[in-house]
Amino acid sequence: MSETSGDSAPSGAATAGAEGTEIAGLSYEEAREQLVLTVQRLESGGLSLEESIALWERGEALADQCEAKLEGARRKLEQARARREDKAATEDASA
């Protein structure tokens, strides 16, 4: 496996599918950290157009993963609040 920059840039639909699967398995924290690193690489410059586009697309997928994880957390909080309110209402009605 080469460690030189540019030799490992993702390309092709097969790689995009594999990356999508990889990204979908990341936690919020992992996706956010990878997104930060991706943005830093883009901002540092010196990349070919193809590398920049691939990184941009990866960044978009990572941002989508972060948003999905945050939305899932919001949903869980709303459900917990609703259960707590239902429980409190049931207890008040019983008293």
From TrEMBL:
**Pfam families (UniProt xref):** Exonuc_VII_S
Listed under GO cellular component are: cytosol; exodeoxyribonuclease VII complex
Give the reactions, separated by semicolons, that this protein catalyses.
Answer: Exonucleolytic cleavage in either 5'- to 3'- or 3'- to 5'-direction to yield nucleoside 5'-phosphates
Q: Where is the signal peptide?
A: none
Q: Oligomeric state and partners?
A: Heterooligomer composed of large and small subunits.
What is the role of the protein in this entry? Bidirectionally degrades single-stranded DNA into large acid-insoluble oligonucleotides, which are then degraded further into small acid-soluble oligonucleotides.
NCBIfam families of this UniProt entry? Answer: PRK00977.1-3 (NF002139), xseB (TIGR01280)
- Put simply, this protein is called Exodeoxyribonuclease 7 small subunit
The protein's organism comes out as: Sediminivirga luteola
Query: Where is the organism placed in the taxonomic lineage, from the top?
Result: Bacteria, Bacillati, Actinomycetota, Actinomycetes, Micrococcales
